[in-house]
Structures are given as structure tokens and as C-alpha cells.
Fold:
Amino acid sequence: MTSTSSIYSRKEDTGHYVNGNLIGINSRDSSVAPSGACSDAGSDGSEPSSQNSNPLSGSSSHVDLNPPVVADPTANNGKGEVIVVKVGTSTIMRGEEEEGDIALSTLALLVDTLVALRKAGFHVVLVTSGAVGLGCKRLGLKKKPESLAGRQAMAAIGQSSLMRTYEELFGYANQHVAQQILLARGDVAKSHQYFNARNTLFELLRMGVIPIVNENDTIATEELRFGDNDRLSAMVAGLLDAKWLFLLTDVDQMYTADPRSDPSAAPIDVVEDIESLMVNTGGDGKGGTQWGTGGMGTKVTAARLATAAEVTVCIMNGAKPENILNFVLPNKVKAVGTVFLPQKKVIRGGRKRWIAHGLKPTGTIYVDDGAERAILRKKSLFAAGITKVEGDFDAEACVHVCNSRGEEIARGLVNYSHEEIEKVKGLHSDVLLEVLGYEGPEEVIHRHNLVDVPSGCND
Ligand SMILES: Nc1ncnc2c1ncn2[C@@H]1O[C@H](COP(=O)(O)OP(=O)(O)O)[C@@H](O)[C@H]1O
Ligand SMILES: N[C@@H](CCC(=O)OP(=O)(O)O)C(=O)O
Structure:
């Protein structure tokens, strides 16, 4: 493996690498700091404004029970911005050869850092992995169980020691935390659930509490889970209009290939355009460490989702969590990590983010070239433009919308089931009543329920 120092000294543009899942790189000096506050999520005109505005940045009728304690009263650097920090199993667990399960000193440093962020005026959410790995260690297993039921059982065992550790560490720092916010995709499958989660989290932040989130591994079934916390953290960051999402892992940053297996892998400091990013993440989606889930692939997917929600994402080493301060506070030393800048084309509006981040498509609708052009111009999808339908779904399901070349161009909530769409595909809306025998909406997917999906978000 390439030594760390030699990897860091490389700053040249690293060109294109074709292998694995991804796509072109902008590798350059990370001193080019991401700039600009996350603008308000704004409204796409289709939702109540209360679902779109960030209650922490606007005026609120709520009393701030515990306003941020500012370390230096002249410099409230955070200004109430939200920072989501996701810590991976590889950071939380001790190595094989070490005594004990939890990397306590690392977690203590992490807790110190999060408290320092609060004191600097930021609102902080912690998304933590580790339940499955800790459960396995507790039972003396050398690897994660293959079966979902086995992993669910391990999560049930590990989650409590994980929470106990955080409770104690934050307690020493007099920082209130909200433990056990266990979420799965099924918990945000309805839009009111998504906005309810948002309201609860904002309420906690307003109270000065640090919410601690993990996937509800023990309960969630395969179809109703995020499957990895990188993705869950991107959903949370989008949900809360976060300014930053930090993905803490066991490598210093993202490289053009896995530095463990490819000594020529070069570091990537800044990704300006994730659409043209090209790195090797291991390819099979199973890359990563003994206890981690998904390797770098799930982190890049998370970066796609979060940057599409105007969040700046940083992949960095969880063993040095204090580095987060160097990224977010002014006049700090240069920090090591890979920064993904917010995308130019962003998903605005809570409802559209819910469709893109919270829902798992259960079918696919293929459209002709005319319908593709209409969708790209933000129009609704009508039956006339549909050529094929796949999957077994009901009305209100989320589906992929693919063009004639099979590329996904959007996702949306359908007004009809797959059987109904099968009957009306290619037909003019005027004949829907005659063909179906009842009156329904003229659009198969209304434009307010259609969303551009960051490409490469496989699910
Ligand atoms: N291009 C890459 N750059 C950096 N790390 C990579 C890359 N591709 C694969 N990896 C692997 O991803 C691992 C981190 O993923 P994972 O095990 O899921 O961590 P975590 O538990 O922190 O989420 C690293 O240890 C590294 O071996
Ligand atoms: N929810 C699981 C973590 C899943 C996951 O994404 O793990 P990791 O790749 O280590 O962030 C757990 O608590 O073990």
C-alpha cells in the first residue's frame, strides 16, 4: 500500500479511472474551501411552506430552551447551521488484536468534537453505526452473520452497549443527547412520517440536544431498510437542510481506488462535479472492512444524494474527528479529507427530497423520446408517452422512470397501479375513463411527484 505521506503530497489532476462503479475526478488542493451557506431548501410550490423552510434558520414561535453555548461570544461561527456526522463501524470498533470492543478514546475525541461544534453555534446530529459489529464481538463471532435475521439479532445485542457508551461520554461533557432514534425506510415511507421525523429532529436541535440516529436494524425487513448508514445519514442531512455531512471512516479520504489493494491509488481532495467522478470503490458493492457495510461505494452514493440536497459532504478519518473543526471553523489549519461540493442541479422542496431520499422504487416505467423531453422540462407524465411497465406496484408507489435507452431519468409517485398502467400505456388521456371504467387523474405521474434522481443511486 502507498504510504500515507506520499499519497497526501500528490495534488495533480488524477484523470479518469474506469473500474468499479464510478465516474471523472477533480482532484486539487483541498485548501479550495467549499463556500457559501446552504441556501434555504426553498419551495417548489407544491407543498405547504412549513414543510420546506428550515425552522432553525427562520423566525420561530418556539422558545429556544437551550440556545447554543458560544465558546467565544464574539464569534458564533455556526450560526445555527446543521452538521450531520456519521461514524462507521470501522471507527467505532477496536481492532482484532486489541482488548475490548469499543474504541473508547476515539469515541471520546468524537464526543469532544461534537460538543465543541455545539459550543461554536452549530446544531449537531450524530448518525452512528456499530450495533451489528459490537453484537458480533460480544458473542465472539469473527464475521457478520450472512442472514438478515442473524444481523438483526446482533444489532439488538450491540445497540444497547453502543448507546450506553454515548450516554456516558456525552454525560461527562454535560451534553444532552436523544438516544435511540432508530429509523428505517419504512418509517419515512409516507410523507407525513418523513415530515414528522423532521419536526422531531428540529425540535431536539432547538432544545440544544444532539440526536443520535441509527438504522432500526432489529425490526426493519429487507425492503423497508436503508441498508447502510451512509445512505441514512444522507437522508437525515437532506431532511434537516444540513450545511455539512461528515462521513467518518478508517481511511484519510477517498482515493482513486481502494488504497488497501492498489498502491497507486491517488487521494481526491475536492469533488466539484460528482456526475463526472470516476473512482474504483471495489465494484461489487461489498467492499469495505470486516464489520463495515458497503465500503466506499455507499459513501459515494450518500454524497450524490446529499450534494443533490445542497449539502457539502466530507469523507475523512474517524480516528481524528477533531479535524471536523478544521473544515467548518475559519482560520484553522488545512484539513485532510475528500470534500464533495453541493451539486448545481439540486432537489428543492421537502416532498421531492422525500421521494428521492426516503422511498425505494418498486417498479419501472419506460417512456418514449417525447415523454423524456417533457419530463426533462418538468412536465407531468401521461399514459401516451409510456411504452413499457415493469414490477408489481400499487397506486402511490415510487417507480423508476427510464428513457428508451433504459437510463433512469427520474423517479416519481404513480397515480395508478402497474395493472392499470399496463392497460392505458400508449393511450391518450381522453380514453382513460373508457378503458379503466372509472375516472382517475389524467397524469400517470404528476409533475409535483416527479424528481430528477442523482445518477448512480442504485436501489
Ligand atoms: N476508492 C476508495 N478510497 C478509499 N477507500 C476505499 C476505496 N474503495 C474501497 N475503500 C475501502 O472502504 C473502506 C471503508 O468502508 P467501510 O468498511 O464501509 O467503512 P465504515 O465502517 O467506516 O463505513 C476502507 O477501509 C477502504 O478499504
Ligand atoms: N446499522 C448498522 C450499520 C450499518 C452500516 O452502514 O455500517 P457502516 O458501513 O460501518 O457505517 C449497525 O449499527 O451496525
In short: The CA atoms of residues 14 and 27 lie 6 Å apart. The pocket of adenosine-5'-diphosphate (ligand 1) is lined by residues 88-91, 129, 249-251, 254-255, 257-260, 279-282, 287-289, 292-296 (CB under 6 Å).
